[in-house]
Amino acid sequence: MSRAHTIQKMIMLQNKYMFTYCEIMKQNTPDCKMYLYTIDIVPDYLRINPYVTTGYRLLSSHYQAAKSLFYNHNCLADTLTSMAVILHACLLYFFFSPQTPVFAMHMLNGLLHAPPSAAYHLFGCSGMGEKWFFFYQSLDYIFIFISSFPLLIALGWATPGYPLNLAVVILCVLCLSVAKRLLEGHRYTASDRLVDMLSLVSCHSAPVLYARSWWIVPIMCSYAIGGWLYAYRIPERYVHGTWWTSHAYMHIMLNVAYNCQFQYLKGTINQ
Ligand SMILES: [Zn+2]
């Protein structure tokens, strides 16, 4: 029996009886204790990063995926850095801001985006199936845009003279075009994402640019560094076997940008 055939049979058995590859193989390697798989075992839709060769889950239920929050695998860092946004947003609002509506809008951006993002990494990438993967991926993607409304409103509101109405209309048009493509089942390419993300970053950064605030420099640098790490798959391209990948570092850089936007709001409100 060929290797591909053996693997296919194992996955069928696994789906039918909820066995793991390791139980079937009666292996006891460190990876197998954690029920993890290598890239040559997993289905194509999970192979989104060729530099991540180990640590894949092939789980059968949301319950199993939720439990994977408590052991290490190649999506844990992505999940934790998504969840950290909730803590970051609440800390900034409750301990470091005057708790006005502008800052509540800024917090809402983090609270709206973090749960779908964490769900994509925890459940979508858990190997439950292609259908779940694309469902959670689309949810994550659309919430990047939906959660942008409160952020744009906060930044535009705090910027004297900024044409916020016009900016909100432009963001609506961008959101509708993304929603249309997702509903039509469009499979995104890297260049599609790049155009969408650049449009979104432009929407956010326009009020800071309009105010001629120097905060535009760290904000744009954070986005650029995050995008560069993500696009070039750094550090996993060079540090083989790491599960702290470009995606987790991109999340961290988005958090840095989020913090800079908060500092801009504080500076502008205090003027
Ligand atoms: Zn993510």
Name the features.
271 residues, mainly alpha, 2 domains, 12 helices, binds zinc ion
How far is the first residue's CA from the last residue's CA?
A: 74 Å
| Largest sheet features | none
Q: Quick check: average pLDDT?
A: 87
State which percent range the strand residues make up: under 5%
The value of Rg in angstroms is 21 Å
Number of domains: 2
Q: What ligand molecules are bound, each kind once?
A: zinc ion
**Could you estimate the helical fraction of the residues in percent?**
55-70%
Number of helices: 12
Annotation, overall tally of beta strands: 0
Please write the string of helix (H) and strand (E) elements. Answer: HHHHHHHHHHHH
Uncertain spans, ≥5 residues at pLDDT below 50? 23-33
SSE class: mainly alpha
Query: What form results from the Cα inertia axes?
Result: elongated
Could you describe the 3D structure shown?
The chain is mainly α. It has two domains: 3-69, no CATH class; 74-270. Helices cover 68% and strands 0% of the residues. It is built from twelve helices and no strands. Helix 6 packs antiparallel against helix 7. The radius of gyration is 21 Å and the shape is elongated. The N and C termini lie far apart (74 Å). Residues 23-33 have low confidence and may be disordered. The protein binds zinc ion. Residues 78, 82, 117, 121, 247, 251 line the site of zinc ion (ZN).
